[in-house]
Amino acid sequence: MNCIQGQVFRFLFVLGCLMSLVFGCNLKDPLPIPIEDIECHKVEVAPGPEDFVLDTWHGAPRLLVSSHDRRHPETSGGIYYFDINTEKTGAISRIGEPESILVFKPHGMDIRKQGSRTLLYVIIHDPYAHMERLENAVAIYEVNQNDLRFVNLMEDPDHLWSPNDLSVLPSGDIYVTNDMHGSLDMYTRSKASEIAYYDHVSGTWTTVADNIAFANGILAEEDLVYVTATFDDQVLVFSRSVDGSLGKPLPVVDFKGPDNLMRYKQSLLTTAHYDDLAFLRHKGDPEEHSPSIVFLIRPEMETKTPVFVDEGQLISAASNAMVFKDKLYISQVFDPYMVICNAPVFIK
């Protein structure tokens, strides 16, 4: 994004917010008070390590990281490993992909165990290199120690029209968030998002929720499905029926710009984007900082507690967070590194 494009984008974004004030448009919130006495350090991984999952089935525990350089969207990304014990990182080979996949632009991911196999589910954008945002798929790989072996490519333009994140149940059923149709939805913060559901028995996709303002992170469990509504500034919860359908959404907590979701014991972890314009400036220029916040959410109490707060100097535009063995792991949308911290004592 060049300077003129960035200025135009920000102008249109603010104009859209002014036009939608009647619905509520909050460009920026004051940051929570930073948490004291947290030691953190950076680890270089790859550009745009937006999402990650934990793999504990192939030797030492490791993160599998979804990487794509979103400042140069025409380029291919990859899946990287991050060894939790040694903090060594590197690309993982992908084997057996069809020749029709010309570029690899991963986004949200999930992982599950199926008997002796470990399966990785990856949202990929623009697989045929048309630079067409409506062409998307879910790629499935069998995870091995040193490679990812291609299993299947799931495509459905009616239900995977702008997939952002996905969550896979032990059965193989899948829930996917579709965030926005285009820039107009972003400018006006439109409630245009949907949640799609894949039934592994019938092999069909259906839409199970809509009317959400930028559905983003999703976490599906046996009876409940949690979703972040980034432009509604809410974390929502849906009751889940045996047939996969969802009930009426209920708010869990409210805060500015929630992103991905991770389970941590009886709580949830999510990141938040507290300054929309700073986020856009950071997208165009890595020297422009964008605040990063991680919240611990206790759904049964409807409370949120900040566990990491940074104005963007250490890490900007944080996108996902996980606690494992007393360490807090944080990824981000654009820059090529992750941050590892000692988890605050009060959440261990």
Index terms:
348 residues, mainly beta, Neuraminidase, 25 strands, 47% strand, disordered N terminus
Overall description:
This protein is mainly beta and 348 residues long. It has one domain: Neuraminidase (6 Propeller), CATH 2.120.10. Helix content is 9%, strand content 47%. It is built from 3 helices and 25 strands. It has helices at residues 3-19, 183-188, 276-284; strands at residues 40-44, 49-55, 62-67, 78-83, 89-91, 93-95, 105-114, 117-125, 136-143, 147-154, 163-168, 174-178, 193-199, 204-212, 215-220, 224-229, 234-239, 250-254, 258-264, 267-272, 292-298, 303-310, 318-324, 327-332, 337-342. It has a 5-stranded mixed beta sheet, with no helix packed on it. A 4-stranded antiparallel beta sheet has the order 1-25-24-23, with no helix packed on it. The protein has a 4-stranded antiparallel beta sheet with strand order 2-3-4-5, with no helix packed on it. α1 packs antiparallel against α3. It starts with a helix and ends in a 6-residue tail after the last strand. Mean pLDDT is 93; it is low at 1-8 and 18-23.
Summarize the structure.
The chain is mainly beta and 348 residues long.
Low-confidence stretches: 1-8, 18-23
Helix-residue proportion: under 10%
Strand content: over 45%
Number of helices: 3
Give the N-to-C terminal Cα separation. Answer: 41 Å
Going by CATH, the homologous superfamily would be TolB, C-terminal domain
CATH topology: Neuraminidase
Mean pLDDT across all residues, rounded? 93
Numbering strands along the chain, what is their spatial order in the largest sheet? 6-10-9-8-7
Helix/strand-derived category reads: mainly beta
CATH architecture: 6 Propeller
Give the class-level CATH name: Mainly Beta
Radius of gyration based on Cα positions? 19 Å
> What does the largest sheet look like?
5 strands, mixed
Task: Please trace the helix and strand order, writing H or E for each element.
Answer: HEEEEEEEEEEEEHEEEEEEEEHEEEEE
Gross geometry: globular
User: What is the number of beta strands?
Assistant: 25
Number of domains: 1
